[in-house]
Design goal:
two-stranded antiparallel ribbon, 43% helix, BHMT-like, transferase
Length: 284
Amino acid sequence: MNAIVLDGGLATHLETLGCDLSDDLWSARLLTDDPGVIRQAHLDYFRAGADVATTASYQASVPGFVRHGLTSEGARDLIRLSVTLAVQARDEAGHGLVAASVGPYGAYLANGAEYTGDYDLDEDGLTEWHRERFEILADAGADLLACETIPSHAEARALARLLRETPSVRAWVTFSCRDGEHVSDGTPFEECAAVFADLPQVVAVGVNCTAPRFIPELIKHGASIVYPNSGETWDAANRRWLGLADPVEFGRAAAGWAAHGARYVGGCCRTTPAHIREIRSHLA
């Protein structure tokens, strides 16, 4: 099982480091407030065994930063900084790759639309909305782009258009999925994955921020990169989270995903360096 180990939930770990991420910029706010803690979080994941750091640009966008009072140039500088911080952590760790996160339009909306695909923009509008940040990140020094938590066929087509315009830029593409066969807007996963079939720079297509119980079926449908959330649900009666919160159990499951064909495995929301350490241990 020679799978590449990705990192875990960046925001989750930042919260354990004492950060308040309660506004709509989420972890991207720390690019201006406390960039050092972002670098530390990346370094913690590398030291836990991750081969890849995914940047804090998921919720970062020029219009999003401008909405919070920054200038357009200041916003662009912060987006570049997200890559610089991950590169610094990679260099200190002495190994690994940096994937620049290209979050979905829904992350900017901050209304949960990245899990529904319920957007007010069509494919053309999504292409233009993504273009500026896409171009900044493509030129910022990352090893590849992580186009992630994509909920819809239309947004997949928009990102494919931008990738065709930049054939030298490598990327992976991952979707948020509602079950073992469909992305969040109801389109079959295989249909969305096919959008990237003619793009050799796309190193993998798969899923993230999706419940772990759906991962084995999605691998059967062609997902080669998988980094689900912890799958937890809130048990109000007993006041506890239920799911794969236990790092050992998550690591064991990840080894199974790799055995069934996933080439990249990691975690998303509510996973931590402890989960990544267990993935590395179980793969070894």
